[in-house]
Specification:
single chain, 65 residues, mainly alpha, 0% strand
């Protein structure tokens, strides 16, 4: 598993100024280097659906979890 669900579940929810989580080391160290190397290269601002960008296998695997 590429992610650490125990860390996620043990991280307290912050409620102000809105609900959010920051989960340190959520992507496990042994997977992080490959995921970072496989991020899509995007040269313009905005949000893009995965179907519109090219990325490597490790990033793709993280997106399917």
């Amino acid at each position: 598993m590429m992610i650490d669900l125990d860390r996620f579940e043990s991280t307290p929810l912050t409620r102000e100024p809105f609900e959010f989580l920051v989960v340190p080391e959520f992507v496990k160290a042994d997977a992080r280097k490959a995921v970072n190397a496989d991020y899509p290269h995007i040269e313009k601002h905005g949000s893009f659906p995965l179907s519109e960008v090219k990325y490597g296998a490790a990033f793709g695997q993280l997106m399917t979890i």
